[in-house]
Amino acid sequence: MDRANVTRRGLQYDRRYMLVDDNNFFITQRVQPGMALFRTTIEGGKLIVYHKGNIAERFYLPLVPELSIITAMVNIWDDCCEAQYVSVEADKWFSKKLDFSCRLVYMPESTKRKVDSFYAIDNDITSFADDFHVLLIGEASLEDLNSRLEESLPMNRFRPNFVMKGGTPFDEDTIEQFSINGINFYGVKLCSRCVVTTTDQETGITAKEPLKTLATYRGLNNKVLFGQNVLCGGEGMIKIGDEIRVIKTKPTLL
């Protein structure tokens, strides 16, 4: 996106929809790498979803659906929160595309899923994200990684919300507080990377990199770290090209 509206729950519309399995447990590329082939766009007040295998077949969803009386408790990792079912049509469409039984749910405003209190800044709530609002990665960090790989990888392997230009590799590790367009953000936890980074976002095919190489120099306590998890401390509009103003730094863990 060229611009996004920041809210106290994260970026507007971000991860408010989610696929769940028959046990109402969240589904991601970790277990369904084919999800990488879904694409989304926002047009005319609608969220449009399509699959790379058939870009002409599009599924339309409201950005904010009407409240539904059909709800369920869904699980994201160890969290459990209330979501509303979207439609039978949505369930059929996604299940067919993935060849896997799943249901589509939405997080209404009434659901207040709390951020882990150990990292929360101000009683923060979040969406269906793993836990935090935003992932920040510097272009210099990816360039450093690519200098160590036989084949360079694009930034979308790491799916950050914010990409930072300038600085040196892994500057984002040390940013504790920064602002964009007068909105405060807080770097609260380095991001522990999983097998999703090994999935080619254009083909859905998995391999060993980049985790194999990252583990040689970005490992800590049996975790591979790349990028900084960030919480939003205000509201407003941000856009590509806005300046990142670093307010407070912290020591690096690596």
Task: Outline the secondary-structure elements.
Elements: E1 3-7, E2 10-11, E3 17-20, E4 38-43, E5 46-51, E6 54-62, E7 71-76, E8 79-85, H1 88-98, E9 103-106, E10 113-114, E11 125-126, E12 134-138, H2 139-146, E13 162-164, E14 175-180, E15 183-192, H3 211-214, E16 219-220, E17 223-232, E18 236-239, E19 244-249
Parallel strand pairs: 12-13
Antiparallel strand pairs: 1-2, 1-18, 3-9, 4-5, 5-6, 7-8, 8-9, 10-11, 12-17, 14-15, 14-19, 15-17, 16-17
Number of helices: 3
Molecular shape: globular
Number of discrete domains = 2
* Beta strand %: 35-45%
Mean pLDDT: 97
Tell me the structural class: mainly beta
Main sheet?
7 strands, mixed
User: Could you tell me how far the N terminus lies from the C terminus, measured between alpha carbons in angstroms?
Assistant: 31 Å
Compute the gyration radius: what is it? Answer: 18 Å
What is the helix/strand order? EEEEEEEEHEEEEHEEEHEEEE
The level of helicity is: under 10%
Q: What is the total tally of β strands? A: 19
Weakly predicted, low-confidence segments: none
